[in-house]
Amino acid sequence: MMAGRREGSLMRDKAQSFRGSRIVTAIVLGILLGCIFAFLFPHGFLSSYPPIQNRRFGKSDLQISSSQCESTERTTALKSDIASLSDKNDELKKEVQELTEKLRLSEQEKDHAHEQFSVLGKPHKAGPFGTVKGLRTNPAVVPDESVNPRLAKILEEVAVQKELIVALANSNVKSMLEVWFTSIKKVGITNYLVVGLDDEIEEFCKANDVPVYKRDPDERFDSIGKTGGNHAVSGLKFRILREFLQLGYSVLLSDVDIVYLQNPFNHLYRDSDVESMTDGHNNYTAYGFNDVFDEPSMGWARYAHTMRIWVYNSGFFYIRPTLPAIELLDRVAERLSRPEKAWDQAVFNEELFFPSHPGYNGLHASKRTMDFYLFMNSKVLFKTVRKDANLKKLKPVILHVNYHPDKLPRMQAIMDFYVHGKQDALEPFPDGSQW
Ligand SMILES: *[C@@H]1O[C@H](CO)[C@@H](O)[C@H](O)[C@H]1NC(C)=O
């Protein structure tokens, strides 16, 4: 701010002295031109003597070219002044943006703390109508560095405000990983970490200046990490994530088939145990709706109302270091370790959403669905957004190529469209995969 004020007065001084010198130049030029014309046209402008006219042109050419030269120099100087000032202006704007973001974060924290205090404090009466709020922002666990001192050290360096993006990768997904971290770097995100599942990926990350963490050898899961397909690795991630939460960090878990277009940390609410992107494609499917089931034989009661919501995407979610969040990870990991085949995303959603019932204690975790236009899945992009002139102008925070098997070319096209401004980059692809 101080810098801004100084810059402002500097600008004013410069402008004033420049205006002054322009006036002086104009007066001097006027007098000079007057003298010249008086000398060349003692009989006034209207007499026509060709040779004198020629001489007049010769002289005034000289005048014009010297003043032109001067003004070109001045224009160049001014242009560079303007350029440096607008650079400064951009810097200041960015600073203001950052400060606003910090303010928003601290307000957010204050609200959460207030909510926690009012619910967890000593017993109290319910307040007046409309003022009562349950707890959704659970308190964070006390960090326990002893679970993994080596990881704790890495996180201390990489995380920003105790949060970071984490992705698991083995060399099967190397080329996608490259697009992934290229987009992250381009946005200017620094708090991200790749959990390398084999040596090749570790080397690859190091060679590209990408923060990487390779776990200590662990017989129980290592074969999964090295040779596992997509779903097996997905199971592993719930076990690995646990340590991050135990160390007190919030994690934005990210698959590698994702392109970053803005910094996601500027678009989180942080009020829930799990804040997740959705597989839904419109307000209903993403945020939940009342789906009426019709059974005509029931006559008067033919309509049964059901609650529906498209699943959360277990490839991109923000998870806070709370007890319900850790319980969720444990429950999912435990179910995936059973012999019967299960899809981690289905298990993740069942654990999150099914209520307690006879013989079953449900998880009581708070959850929030991310804005499906900001945290966009590839169905929304290819089915809707690319065909809509207005939606096309919108810049998502991330794009997840979760609905399409030709992930790499679609990721590259997304980079071309949103980052390199290639307007027709998304056109060659069909809406869905053609098997
Ligand atoms: C979807 O919901 C948003 C707010 O959540 C609203 O602004 C928008 O108009 C809704 N769109 C439709 C098509 O209902």
Automatic annotation (TrEMBL):
Known EC number: 2.4.2.-
Domain Nucleotide-diphospho-sugar transferase intervals: 189-408
Top-level division of the source organism's lineage: Eukaryota
Molecular-function annotations in GO: glycosyltransferase activity
UniProt topology in membrane: Single-pass type II membrane protein
Cross-referenced InterPro entries: Nucl-diP-sugar_transferase (IPR005069), Nucleotide-diphossugar_trans (IPR029044), RRA1/2/3 (IPR044290)
Keyword Cell inner membrane in record: no
Class of enzymatic activity (EC top level): transferase
Subcellular location: Golgi apparatus membrane
GO-annotated cellular components: Golgi membrane
This protein's UniProt keywords: Cell wall biogenesis/degradation, Coiled coil, Glycosyltransferase, Golgi apparatus, Membrane, Signal-anchor, Transferase, Transmembrane, Transmembrane helix
PANTHER family linked to this entry: ARABINOSYLTRANSFERASE RRA3 (PTHR46581), GLYCOSYLTRANSFERASE (PTHR46581:SF12)
Family according to the record: Belongs to the glycosyltransferase 77 family.
Full protein name: Glycosyltransferase
Organism listed in the record: Pyrus ussuriensis x Pyrus communis
Origin organism lineage: Eukaryota, Viridiplantae, Streptophyta, Embryophyta, Tracheophyta
